[in-house]
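Dear support,

Our group has been running a series of protein-ligand predictions, and this particular one with zinc ion is the one our PI (initials K.S.) wants archived with full inputs and outputs. We had some confusion internally about which version of the output was final, so please treat the block below as the authoritative record. The input we submitted was:
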Amino acid sequence: MELSEFPQSIRPYIIPEITGQLEYRCLGCQKKHSIESLLYTCPDCGGVLLLHDLEEKKKMKRSGKLWRRIFDYRRMTTIPALQGIFLFHEFIAPVIPLEHILYLGEGHTPLVEANRILQERIGMTFLFKNEGQNPSASFKDRGMACALSYLNYMISKNKMKNVLAICASTGDTSASAALYASYLGEKVRSAVLLPRGKVTPQQLSQPLGSGATVLEIPGVFDDCMKVVEYLADHYPVALLNSKNAWRILGQESYSFEVAQALDYHLEDTVLLVPIGNAGNITAIISGFLKLFRYGMISSLPKIIGVQSHHANPVYRYYLEPRPGKRTFEPMQVRSSVAQAAMIGNPVSMPRVIEMVEQYNQTAGKQKVFVVEVTEQAIMEHMLLANRNGHIACTQGGESLAGLVKALAEKKVSAKERAILNATAHAIKFSGFQEMYFQNSFPPEFGIRPKKGLQNRPVSAGLIKGGTAMTKKSITPKEYNVFVEKTALKVTKLLGI
Ligand SMILES: *Cc1c(COP(=O)(O)O)cnc(C)c1O
Ligand SMILES: [Zn+2]
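Confirmed final output from the archive:
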């Protein structure tokens, strides 16, 4: 819709004002740092950073109701920069002018309600938010759209040049980073470090296709992360891991979208989120807190983080109920089908600790929980979901397995409504489905496939005359014989 067509009362707000008041804040020493240089960790103490908006107070002069109207009406504009996560420009990175924003189709992923059969089986109302419908087929695009838009802006201001963007990844971060960097052409070169053999072939194909330099490192993700951090500390590279606070800001859009899609009524709503490096749960918590501060929502939804028993450092941390007694211990991970979350030393752990505390305090009671699920449960719930019309990846299966666990542990009641994060598209992780169907899981996963959930192609070609197709030249008569015989075989196989 054209600007002139909007109601007079909302027109002045449709195109966001560009303002320049963000700063980094260190979660370690609490120091503040300017955003004029790109920081990943605190130059003083090495702590992780979050970005804060200094103009929040000023923006809060607008009522929550007005903000809701702004974002709801803004969905009708056709301005490309405002189509994706930057629909919520004022809440994400208000310093970035629209002309520097990258929009590759990220955000506004659908909420798909599970069918009746599946809801009855699980025992409550639930919906998947299909993050696999982002351009690189995972939620990572939300953060990358923000981080690369900021880089693009810095480059335009001549604050940075000859940028080498670099990241370590369990697969999806590199796919997304390489995609967004490639859109910027010569302005940004990109390199990704991957744990050899620990990303799926589909994920590996993505940065290769985007033209990134792909470096394989022996080890697991945590090892790649250490190498990348060393590089970021000693060389002029732009780190695109979730240490990069701009990514967290972009990923907050998930919460804004959930709230908007539910008309901002979040009472009795619970969100399930798989946890790996813990950037996503940080962003989701932070996003809802923002909406609450602005008066756009009147209650904070419950948030349940989910981890596999093979990579569960966050779960272990919260097993201790007394906050003062908790200590964080990095762990050695074991093989997991939720490979994108197979992380033993999450870089955003200090952010999680801070955000969970703030969230529970604001809510006046515990509203964030972490549950643990088995590898077996993850696989089975992914397969179950996808047999009922979903496109969940293994981590999406983890969300559903986590819901079942949370129900059993009474952390969720059947009267609530659950929003499950299907963090990537099923086809990125089809290798695990294949292993389940072919009974070929290496023993370390500890997964025993169940016949009823397996599915394999059935040959419908082993018939005499069927070989006609392989001949160099076949007569029309021979071809007809082939078609009829094969069709007959198919009718037998399908019982028609
Ligand atoms: C990155 C990723 C996760 C984990 O998210 P964190 O922010 O690292 O906790 C989960 N699922 C998929 C598909 C991912 O790519
Ligand atoms: Zn510090």
